[in-house]
């Protein structure tokens, strides 16, 4: 029996939901030995992210720690002029009053090793409590936990502008795919409100990023927006490679 698989996690799924979908698909194809065998995943992806997810099976589950340090590659779309409290689509939104600005983002300046703060809505725990639970309770720590990460390379794949109408349609389509309680009703209502001017345009930057394990793409998007001065969030995140 094969002990590891790289599967495609879909937008809206949690890693656990992707794992159980994989199990059900394999059993339906006749691999009944996988019905009750232990499985786990190594390297989580947020609900709004998609792409490669490593599944470990049986005895390989005991080696999970060895897989957690794998380097990764992502393709990310970053929208400027908007911030959310999750740093991605699935968050409460704030639109900057200024329109798109012509300044270029020097993506090469983000290559290197640095200390990255965890997003407020993440599974990182502080004193045993996940940050996302603290965020929803309005009780985030004064000093957010950080992790040293490395970005090995950033390649610009393209730039474009998108109207508020196009952006809203894309965002609502993504949110509709999410199950569970992620404040979807409140978030959707806010997106409708702040993107009510269908002709307004926003700048979108697409990047390919090779990085160390544990690097948050949405935190990087937020940082770019903060340093540029008009805010930013991750419109899409796709993990394209896990570098064994």
Summarize the structure.
The protein has 244 residues and is an alpha+beta fold. The protein has helices at residues 15-28, 64-67, 131-136, 164-175, 184-194, 217-228; strands at residues 4-9, 39-42, 49-57, 71-80, 82-84, 93-95, 112-117, 125-126, 129-130, 146-163, 201-211, 232-243.
Characterise this structure.
The chain has 244 residues and is α+β, with helices and mostly antiparallel strands. The chain folds into two domains: 4-67; 71-243, 2-Layer Sandwich (Pseudouridine synthase), CATH 3.30.2350. It is 24% helix and 35% strand. Strand 2 and strand 3 form a beta hairpin. The two termini are 20 Å apart. 33% of the residues are buried.
How would you name the CATH homologous superfamily of the largest domain? Pseudouridine synthase
User: First CA to last CA: what distance?
Assistant: 20 Å
Number of domains: 2
For the CA atoms, what is the radius of gyration? 19 Å
Helix count equals: 6
